[in-house]
Amino acid sequence: KAGVTQTPRYLIKTRGQQVTLSCSPISGHRSVSWYQQTPGQGLQFLFEYFSETQRNKGNFPGRFSGRQFSNSRSEMNVSTLELGDSALYLCASSIAGTGGETQYFGPGTRLLVL
Amino acid sequence: SQQGEEDPQALSIQEGENATMNCSYKTSINNLQWYRQNSGRGLVHLILIRSNEREKHSGRLRVTLDTSKKSSSLLITASRAADTASYFCASEGSGNTPLVFGKGTRLSVIA
User: Fold this and answer.
1) CB pairs under 8 A between A and B
2) In the predicted model, what is the mean pLDDT of chain B?
């Protein structure tokens, strides 16, 4: 089975722009979670989607949004980018996102905001 | 913040030695997982221990869990240069709550 894929792998944007990141989960996985990783804050949970519905949401401003499609692929969007949004964005998939499931992570998208 | 803490933040050992990393978390959990991350890439799941378990082994990995102290430890025995990575614990509460990751321990294994 192919692993979790994320596109693009690297991205450079300027303040005020918006960005869309894409995540394709492992085939058969219906839960996709997104995380932001920075040196200062570590891994912070953004949101989780299951069957096209947002099931959990972390403590991030409304500039961060996401969605999931019927084929379980997910996108996250960040509008009005700020310097502090520079980070590694990781998505992870699991079969159903229920307790005790292993999360399979993609390689991440590294976003640099100038 | 709900994040847990790993201790130490960084650890440097010689190949063949054992490496022990500790993790503390803040709320009651259903299970605790350990992940490894190589240099800014995705995380790889290592092992899961449930709240009713005290110890679990997987190859050269040994994980313990003390729910009374809200802490866990990961022991890597006979370390290898390829074990060089960051290690994160992630706690999972009840219901469909998201994983809460600690800040990680950077392990360097010197050949």
Assistant:
1) 59
2) 92
